[in-house]
Amino acid sequence: MNLSATHPKWAPYFFIAPFLIIFSVFMAYPMVQSMILATQQTFGPQTTQFVGMGNFSDLWSDPLFWRAIRNTFLYAVASVTIQLPLSLGLAVLLNSKRLKGRAFFRLVFFSPSLVGIVFVAMMFALMFHERDGLINAFLRQIIPSFPEELPWLQIYVMPALVIASLWMYVGFNMIYFLAALQGVDSTLLEAAEIDGAGRWDRFRHVVLPQIAPVTGFIMLLSIIGSMQLFELPYILLGGPGPENRGLTIVMYLYQYGFEIGDLGYASAIGWSLALILMGMALVQRAATRRATNVG
Amino acid sequence: MSVEAKSTQRMMTFMMYAMLLVFALVTLLPFFYLLCSAFKTKEAFFSSHFLPRGEGFLGIDWGGLTFEHFRVLFTDPSLRFGRSVLNSVFLASVTSIFATLFSAMGGYALAKFAFRGNKLITGIVLASLIIPGPLLLAPGYQLIYNLGLLDSYAGLIIPGLAPAFGIFLFRQSMVNSIPVDLMEAARIDGCGEIRMFFGIVLPLIKPMAGAFLLITFLGAWNNFIGPQIILQSPEKFPLAVSIAQLKGLYGTNYGLLMAGTLVSIMPVMCLFLLLQKDFISGLTSGAVKG
């Protein structure tokens, strides 16, 4: 690598100092502290009591924690499996050579990503209104037998969250897919076309393998993001919702840490989430390695 | 090309535009809905989904539209809405400017200098990318409490000033775009290290810095859980927290809620429209180059 060596000794340390200071104080130290906290029961930030692995064994037999895990996984799997094919489809359309107005469409599809989740939740709270909301009005138009009222935010909480997530993230992921598609080697595509491969075959056997690394990356990022779902249901439902239908892992962490005041139990929930996410990242890495070795 | 092939091609092009337009419409409809809802009177609110229908020009009941919600937002002192707008502007500006500066500095050190600890720090930066934010909520809150920074902007801003993600992004983009020969030539000419960073390096990575500035501005503007946990005085709340409170207090006054939401998303929308080219290319630059 091309590195400078004629510099005064202090220079690199000066430039990296803000990171090192902030990282040590606000990241490394809390990381260590969260391991200690996970072995404690706390009442607010001051009063603590050592409970060892008690928090984790309590979590293991806590039905609400399992409910939160189930909801979160359901949301992550449903939203990512619907999101990514749509994102890829839009990116393929936008990547077409004959398309005019690509910049316009790209801007339109990207625009929901600018809206913070809290504000998305505000908009969808009205759109999901059980009688007069835009979504039910639209469904009544296209499905004649659609009921007068459909209580999305009382009964069909997960589908509502997935619909809102599609609006938010399809365009965002599309940007990454589009960048990947633009990097596909066009000589390979032309060669496949000369060999008589159809449109679908070229996509399936030339394009998809080439964008596989980016696809894996987008999938991992989307799942990690989805597993941290909090604001959307918290604002949309004003909390976990009826019968905890919208309770997620991070919402449970928030409730324990900042409504009940037990930072210890909250830290144990945080570590459970962190371990789940790290496990997923390892699986994804192994899968990508295998795919690139085979392919 | 045969006539038949030409007509299939025309059909495909038509289908492509049709699908894109349908998706574009679905994407834009919630924005239009928000816009209409923010201006509708309470009486006209549920009479139609978009603009109130009536006898007026273009078949719209213009009397069903009002600026009342905006007037209430900015004049009712108990809502402190104007204050929240200023709070958000302040928080997002300060956070994004310093986070961009510190990220660029850190990325520069790792990308361009041979020094003891470079490899180790690069490893730390990469490792901390995988730490999920929620893990730090509880211990971070305790730390902010112990530092006496609860309910202060310092406690909200400082922890986010040197994001590992930013250091990594700047490192990646500087490795090949800043020639070391140029740095050494500048040194021979007597240019100091700090002047070199601000005068030579920063201008070279301006597009990347602009994109990152926008990303962090957006992140700080839309941040909810941070201020929700750290701030306690309502007069310090940024828009994301104020809007959530507004929903709790005025849950069925949809016109007011939508007016507040509209005001909250307009500034970032405008900023983005002004600077969108840099933004999108900057977003993907780190991901695709890897």
Task: Outline the structure in words.
The complex is a heterodimer of chains A (295) and B (290). Chain A is mainly α and 295 residues long. Chain A has a single domain, classed as MetI-like (MetI-like fold). Chain A has twelve helices and two strands; from the N terminus they run αββααααααααααα. Chain A has helices spanning 10-37, 54-60, 63-94, 102-110, 117-127, 134-142, 157-182, 186-194, 199-227, 231-236, 249-260, 263-294, and strands at 40-43, 47-50. Chain A has a two-stranded antiparallel sheet. Chain B has 290 residues and is mainly alpha-helical. Chain B has a domain at 89-243 and 275-289: Orthogonal Bundle (MetI-like fold). Chain B contains 13 helices and no strands. Chain B is globular, with a radius of gyration of 25 Å. Chain B starts with a helix and ends with a helix. The model of chain B is unreliable at 286-290 (pLDDT under 50). Classes of the chains: A mainly alpha (295), B mainly alpha (290). The interface between A and B is large, with 95 and 95 residues.
Please give the structural blueprint.
The complex is a heterodimer of chains A (295) and B (290).
Chain A: H1 10-37, E1 40-43, E2 47-50, H2 54-60, H3 63-94, H4 102-110, H5 117-127, H6 134-142, H7 157-182, H8 186-194, H9 199-227, H10 231-236, H11 249-260, H12 263-294
Chain B: H1 3-39, H2 68-75, H3 81-112, H4 118-128, H5 137-146, H6 153-157, H7 164-177, H8 180-188, H9 193-204, H10 206-222, H11 225-230, H12 239-249, H13 254-289
Number of strands of chain B: 0
Q: Strand share of the residues of chain A?
A: under 5%
CATH structural class of the domain at 89-243 and 275-289 in chain B:
Mainly Alpha
Uncertain regions spanning at least 5 consecutive residues of chain B:
286-290
Principal-axes shape call of chain A: globular
Order of helices and strands of chain A: HEEHHHHHHHHHHH
Average the pLDDT over all residues of chain A and give the rounded result. 91
CATH architecture assignment name of chain A: Orthogonal Bundle
What name is given to the CATH topology of the domain at 89-243 and 275-289 in chain B?
MetI-like fold
User: What class do helices, strands and sheet pairing of chain B give?
Assistant: mainly alpha
Rg of chain A, nearest Å: 24 Å
